[in-house]
Amino acid sequence: MKVIVTGSLGNISKPLAETLVAQGHQVTVVSSDQKKKAAIEALGATPAIGSISDVKFLTDTLKDADAVYAMIPLSFTEPDLGSYLRRMAQNYVQALKQAGTRRVVLLSGWAANLTQGENVEDVFDDLKTSLTIMRPAVFYTNFYQSMDLIKGKGLIGKFLTLRYLGLWALITGKTGLLMGNYGGEDRIVFVSPKDIADAVAEELLLHPEKKVIRYVGSEEMTCNEAAKIIGTAVGKPWLKWVLLSDKEMLQGLKMAKMPEKLAGTLVEMQAAMHSGKALENFHRNKPKMGKIKLADFAKEFAKAYK
């Protein structure tokens, strides 16, 4: 089977490509980075160097493919994240139609249907093809973005490599924290990118007649329980995940010079998790949990931390 994998050699795309190649499929990996060409070839896959913003490139790449894994990388330089995501989604739909692709697996997010700025799933409803929408929970790998903050150079949270919040930590002395407008005792589902990749690999081989929505998770716990696992692994068992209000979070993002629309979208995404609605949706769909636990990831994190 000829499979196109977008997302370059990212946390999901790399293990997905490895799995598909091992299964004997003909795999093409799309990357905008020419420097990734040799690494893609080393996996046994064919590199396609170009951008999903280029509809012609995308159409040519998808031509004759049996299945496509489609993802849109988040951009924190775009002033309007929602507008950017919709443009890229429309590029995909145009290219998929022109290429006549029969099977598509789209990466979304577990709170995507609860936020106006992030949700582009409806754009793909125009496709007359077999479609699965993947809604993975909070990535374990998001903790890497907070490594310096955990070390005491700031704070921790998905988007908190921010000058304002880092300054707040230094002033108050509250280093070694996780922060966000979700956190504390909020119950969250976390997920390993490898478990997501395995789920995507399964879906690519299927061909449902109707649109399928599949949630993916690895382990459920409170944010503070997650913080303790990560903290213990790096010698800071007191690590806490501080819950900010939406207003505090928005203020911090704005003071970090983030565009207003983008800041609002990020706050909305996290508020959906704090509200518990994302967890309700997850439980309602009763997905099977993945194999990799946060404690397993914490060992990898600790090696990188040191």
From TrEMBL:
Signal peptide boundaries: none
UniProt xrefs under Gene3D superfamilies: NAD(P)-binding Rossmann-like Domain (3.40.50.720)
Domain NAD(P)-binding: residue ranges: 7-121
A Pfam short name: NAD_binding_10
InterPro entries assigned to the protein according to its UniProt record, in alphabetical order: Ergot_Alk_Oxidoreductase, NAD(P)-bd_dom, NAD(P)-bd_dom_sf
Name recorded for this polypeptide: Nucleoside-diphosphate-sugar epimerase
Organism: Chitinophaga rupis
